[in-house]
Design the sequence.
């Protein structure tokens, strides 16, 4: 059975902050299903509100950015979400000018936090089962996930998402993501200047770790 709580040792290592109110714009349905799993638990806390905006799903990184900008510029949404932290969750496999897209996101006046997966979000799912250090293509990631699941991996499948969370190991996934981040920091590589060289990479573990801390 997988571990969906942080160990006491890990809790003492991380900087715990109240998540508060956040809105997340997801590129894909798979990401939405994964984040929804935690949001439904955490939103029982009256001091926390996690909104996951889904209309941008099934696009690419440019699509999710464009949608978030237009959504937040609407007067009603601007008032409602003015005090929310704003996250963009996206992959780096499309479009080809991904580095420019990230720079545009960074330059927005909305103050986005970027949750990036290179090559794609399924890399993070695979980290629930194993450490990833070498560059992997999409086909290889899907095949490895299928091996761990003992069935063909399918995107946007809520049952598979639950199985990965419950039968994989979230704390190991967080450690695997943290190890990659430390490697790139030693190499002085950052997503704002070097994302194309940062494969494999994902920083979603930083958000999930705070979710788990909130649940502990």
Sequence:
């Amino acid at each position: 059975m997988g571990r969906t709580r942080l160990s006491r040792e890990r809790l003492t290592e991380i900087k715990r902050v109240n998540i508060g109110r956040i809105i997340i714009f997801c590129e894909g349905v798979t990401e939405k299903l994964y984040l929804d799993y935690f949001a439904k638990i955490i939103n029982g806390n009256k001091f926390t509100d996690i909104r996951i905006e889904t209309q941008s799903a099934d696009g690419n990184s440019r699509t999710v950015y464009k949608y978030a900008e237009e959504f937040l510029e609407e007067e009603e949404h601007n008032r409602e979400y003015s005090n929310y932290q704003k996250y963009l969750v996206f992959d780096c496999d499309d479009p080809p000018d991904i580095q420019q897209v990230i720079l545009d996101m960074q330059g927005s006046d909305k103050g986005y936090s970027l949750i990036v997966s290179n090559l794609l979000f399924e890399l993070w799912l695979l980290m629930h089962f194993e450490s990833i250090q070498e560059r992997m293509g999409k086909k290889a990631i899907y095949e490895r996930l299928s091996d761990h699941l003992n069935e063909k991996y399918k995107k946007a499948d809520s049952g598979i998402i639950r199985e990965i969370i419950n039968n994989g190991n979230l704390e190991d996934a967080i450690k695997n993501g943290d190890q990659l981040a430390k490697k790139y920091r030693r190499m002085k590589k950052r997503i704002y200047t070097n994302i194309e060289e940062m494969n494999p990479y994902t920083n979603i573990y930083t958000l999930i770790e705070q979710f788990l801390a909130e649940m502990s």
The two ends are 18 Å apart (CA to CA).
